[in-house]
Amino acid sequence: MILTHPFTTTAFELPGYRITRSFGVVRGIMVRSRSVVGNFGASIQSIFGGNISIYTSLCERTREDTFNLMLTHAGQLGANAVIGVRYDATEIAPGITEVLCYGTAVLVEKVN
Questions:
Q1: pLDDT tens by residue, 56-80
Q2: What is the CATH number of domain 17-110?
Q3: What are the residue ranges spanned by the domains of the chain?
């Protein structure tokens, strides 16, 4: 399920809104590995060059999952917006990658 939020941004402010409360850093974290089948399919794709769609799909799905976890964390705190959203990825072992999505959970209200 894709969670969407109109008040999620990489910026540190939302034009037309003011921040009334900050809840601090929220995050979504996931550790994923590539499967043997995925690695085999990707090695076949790499022979022909170009986009390796199996890995692209895995990356997109993982980023989406961590984003949704971050939004869930923000919602649990009572935030209605997340600002300064960023992603980070670290390979913690060959074929195993940690993906982190984080930002600052805030409460915003429309400026009159």
A1: 787 888 999 999 999 999 999 999 9
A2: 3.30.110.70
A3: 17-110
